[in-house]
Each structure stands twice: as structure tokens, then as C-alpha cells.
Amino acid sequence: MDNRIEFIYLSEPDTIKLGIMDAPGWVDVCEEVFTLLAKGDYLMGGSNHNSHGMGIIFPKESPFPNMPVAGPDRRFFAMPAYLGGRFDVCGNKWYGSNAANTKRGLPRSILTVLINDKETGAPLCHMSANLLSATRTGAIPGVAVRHLARKDSKAVAVVGCGPINKSCFRHLITQAPQVEKVFCYDLFIEKAQALAEWIKKEYGIKAEAASELPDALKDADIVTVAASRIKPLHIESSWLKKGVLLMLTGPAKGDDKLWTESKIVYDNIKLHEAYVEEAYASGDVAGYYAGVIGGPLYTLIDQGKLAKLEDSTDIGNVILGKKPGRTNDEENIVFVACGMAVFDVACGFELYQRALKQGVGQKLLLWNEPYLK
Amino acid sequence: MDNRIEFIYLSEPDTIKLGIMDAPGWVDVCEEVFTLLAKGDYLMGGSNHNSHGMGIIFPKESPFPNMPVAGPDRRFFAMPAYLGGRFDVCGNKWYGSNAANTKRGLPRSILTVLINDKETGAPLCHMSANLLSATRTGAIPGVAVRHLARKDSKAVAVVGCGPINKSCFRHLITQAPQVEKVFCYDLFIEKAQALAEWIKKEYGIKAEAASELPDALKDADIVTVAASRIKPLHIESSWLKKGVLLMLTGPAKGDDKLWTESKIVYDNIKLHEAYVEEAYASGDVAGYYAGVIGGPLYTLIDQGKLAKLEDSTDIGNVILGKKPGRTNDEENIVFVACGMAVFDVACGFELYQRALKQGVGQKLLLWNEPYLK
């Protein structure tokens, strides 16, 4: 029997060659993943099959001088998943994150994805996954805009102007080509200005930086939020235009009405149920809620002010036509999206398939014949 | 600034070239890890810093025909860790396991380890880790024999004759060169015979297969247990020789006396505390205990029949001379060792250092300059 195992390695330039930065297609891939999530054809980590993943959590202080301590965005995380449908593979995203990286000229996180055969566990494709991760995160609001935005949306607000929200914009604009105006807001006005300039140049759309958040929001039909976790973002419901689609890729707080007078559409209800379960298991529910995007929603659900998760709408069932999405142009919709390993597996598998077809990447030998059986 | 990132890839043959199968040295590496565990200079996954890792757990049945379902030894697992001391790196072991692999001529598990810079998260070395994993698992009983076995140990029993216990034997025998006789026991006598033949040939030590477990145990001063989880192994205390060192790398059950009349030495008390914590959080304590090596001990501790974990002995403190190990030749000692990601990180780092020095492995480009910052 031939037991030789080889797998493919893709550098970041390889993933670019394979189209990771070509926006439209990834919205389709992510839409497909949402339908698999709604059907239940996936497994993420843990006994509830829906854990976000497992991190190395650095302590606030340590008696060991070399041990990393807690800092902004500082963590390591492993995110394993199986995804069904045409993907039908397992994989793991593994990354280290540290806000201090940006001072070194490096991205905040450095990520790789490994895709594995579901039967044998053999590696199929290992890849640099910074672009993959930004793309899958950005394509998800693209899916939301396709299904939940007003068809006549004319203005977009980009709240938080880092690489993640830039990716969100790149994807959502493919779904709303009629948009005429973009408002950019960031804690640092220069970042908002830079993104506005880039949008004008790249897309020929009017774009401007807003120095106050309400100014960025007041005319926006589509709002994409992916701001740094360093300073909490607060959004008042009165700042929003009627009929808005507010998409949270990063955390935001707001008055109760922001949530209770909107239709909430979740990325995956079971994931949020798992978050709530983990919050209660942690013994510090409020503390746990404070650290996750859905926290403000879970708090209102616990208080009976918002529909229970099991009675709520997920985008997968909207795509499948099993639950209503937007029913009129006046309703505000909040779309909540957390990172999920299944999207990394989907996009990683897609790149792997393209690499096979196009002969891109480096073949690596695991073994010619396993030394131990 | 030069932001080019490269890392090293090591195939299984590369890891052999770098000495992964050269037994004596890895016992020293693992001994070093135990002292770091005792000092607390490490972080594994989760908020308790001591989780074994996070798995994809396959369901017993699935409505999706392609979805993997539960089977013998079938799982995927991510095991992240930071390890201090001279290692001072992060890393993750990621593997898929499936007993059916052996029918395909493949090892039961296929494993890789990725070692990362603790500050930036950048990958340093990705490697085939089947041999690494077998070596770190085998070297741990080597450390136990060094510190806990009778100095005049003459006979060894190998209970379970698969690749893991073969690795255990390869390492422990370096610490007990005076051994004159080895008894091999396995559910399948042919496997026991094959291991006995190999030991005779490789080490020139008398070795024989025992068809009954008590026969294998009755004269053994050192017992290494790493049997398949498929059929539970039962050991009666009366079958053991006085003064034995019984080392559990895999699960075993026994009468209460097996545990209560032995001195228990743990690999890492905090890990076992985390297992107990996770068992209680799972809502099915007995079910959880049944699946882990320490289960029979935790049950007796809960019943008040065995010393609490916090009052127990760990091998790291024995090595450091802070807790007594063996105090006389009559006491029975049970050493309990579970897999820990810190050992993978330690051995992975050691291979990475050797690869740098010896120029072994393949350099892989992550990026010349990160496309997104």
C-alpha cells in the first residue's frame, strides 16, 4: 500500500494568486456556509459542537519575567471545525494576536489554517491565513447586505477603519453597487480619512471621514461596525436612520432600544447558545458577556426584554427562505456576526481546491512511509 | 523595516535526522518540563490555564451521510500551550485520530505541531509530529522510572504492546539498564510476542509474552500501561509485586486498594484539578471520569478514600526535591500521566533549535511583506 502523504503549503502571495482578495466570490462561499449552519451540517469544538475555540489566556501578571501577560488583543487561539456540504473536511485555524505587533510593522494577528482529511486526519493544505481570515470576516457582512439591506440603500457608514472593516466594505459593496456615499468613522480621524480616500480612488464613490459618530450614522442605510476593542463603542438608537441594516462584526454597546426596537438576525443561534452556556459555566456571567459581541443581547434576553435565542432568526434560514428576513423598508435590522471556524475551513478548502487545479503552492512531504504504525 | 517572515517545515524523516528517535535525551527534556510545571511557568488552554485542549467530538449518529460519526479513537484535537524556562514559546498540536486508519496502513493518529513566537504569533516551525508525540509520551515514564522506581528493579511489564508503549519502553529502559527481564502483555498475544522479540533483539534482554495479565505483573518492579481504550483494562492490587512502580500512560481500572494502598504521584496536579472542574461543569461527572486516566482516582478522592489533589504529590516537586518521592523499597507507587500540550511544545522547540543549528528542514515563506497590516 502506498502510505506516502504529501500536503500543500500556501504562502500569503500564493493565496493572493488564488484569488483570496477577489471580492465577489467569497460572499457566495460564506452564503453557502450559512445554509450549512442552518441545516446543522457542521461541528465546531467542544461537546456542544459550537465552541468558538480554545485560547491561551495570558494572566494579568506573572512571577515569571518571560511569561507573556495580558495586553490589548493579546492571545493565542485554536479554532477547530468540521464543515459538511461540498466541503466535507476538518480544519483548524491557529493564530497569535498582539496589538503591539502594529508597532513592529506586522499585522495585529498572524494566522495559519490547516485543512485535514476528515477520515484519516492527514493534512491536505497548510496556509498563511491573514488574508483568508480578513476575507471570510469581510464576506459575512456581504451576505447580510445581500439578504437584509434595503434594496435602495444609498449610503454606508464604516465604523472602525482598520483592515477588518476595510475587508467588510470591499465585500458588502459588491452587494450594493447602487451606493452613492460612504461615511468613515474611527477613533483616529486620520484612519477614517485614509479609508475615505481609498474608497474614492478605488470605487469612485463619494466618501468622507466623520469626526463624530452620529454624523457618520445619520444618513446611512448600511452600517458596518468593526472597531477596536480598546475603547468601547456606544451607539444610540436615535442616531440611526429608519430602515438601517446595522452589522456588528465587532462589539458595540447601545441603549436598550437599539436592540429591542430592531429585528435581530444572528449568524448562528447555536453558537450564541454556546456562548451563553459558557458564560454561565464561567461563574461570571456579566464579565463573560462584556467580552463578546452578543453580550448586550444576551443581557436583554436574560431580562426578558428580547426574544429568546431559540425563537430568534438566523441568516441561514433567511437564505433558505425558511424564516423572513427584511419584511419592509422601515424596520431596523441588527445583524450579529462572531468569528466561526467553519468559515475558515470553507475558505481554506476553497483555496486548497484552487491550488490543486492551478498547481499553485509548495508540496510538502509528511512521510514516505510512516515510521510508526 | 524588514517584515519578511519565514518558518521551517520538518517532515517525519527530518525529525528522525534531528534525533527524535534517539531515546536518552528526551527524558531530560521531559524532566525539565516537569520542573516548569511544578513551578507554574507554563500556560495551557482555557481560563484555568490547564485544559488538555479542544476537540471536534463526532456525534453518535448524524442525519448527514457524510458527517463523521463517533468511532473507536475517532476525534480531532487542538492542544495549545505556552511553555516558559529556556523554551519560552507558544505552540499548538493538532491531530486527527481514527482507529480505522490502521486498516489503511496508517498510524491511528496523524499529528502536526506548530511552534510560534510568543510575542508576535509568527510561526517558527511546523512539523510532522507522530514521532514527536510518541517520543514525548514515552519519555515521561522514563522520567518516572528515573525518580520513582526501585533502584534494583530487575523486571519490567509492558501492558499494551502498541507503538506508544513501545516508545515508553525505549525511554524507560535508558533509566533502568540493570533490568534483566521483560514481560509483554496485550489483548492480542501476537502483538505481545512481536514486542518481546523486538526487545530481545534490540536490547539483548530476556523478554516473553504473557497470555494472562497476572503472569505479566507478578515479578515486575516496573509496570508501564498504555493499552487500547477499546477494552477496559482491569488490574487487581494483589497481582502486583511489593514495591512496584505502576505507570499509567493509558487508562486502567482496579480494586480500591490498587489506589488507596499506593502512593499516587501525578504528572501535574493542576491539570487533574482542571479535569475534575470540567467533569463537574459537564453535568455528567461519572461519564466524564470514565473517559479520563485519572477517573478512578477522582472517584476515590470524591468519596474521601484518597488524599485530595491539592495535598498530593506531583513528580515536578519530587524532581525539585521539594516533595518526597520513593521513601522505601516496599511502597507501591502509581504514576499517572496524561497528555499535555507543554510536552509537545518542549519537544517541538527542541527540534526547531536543532533544525536551525543543523540546517535541516525546508524554509517556507509566510510573506515578504504583509499585504494587510
TrEMBL record, chains A, B:
Matches recorded under SUPFAM superfamilies: NAD(P)-binding Rossmann-fold domains
Cellular component terms (Gene Ontology): cytoplasm
InterPro entries according to UniProt: NAD(P)-bd_dom_sf (IPR036291), ODC_Mu_crystall (IPR003462), ODC_N (IPR023401)
Record's signal peptide: none
NCBIfam families to which the protein is assigned, alphabetical: PRK06199.1
Listed name of the protein: Ornithine cyclodeaminase
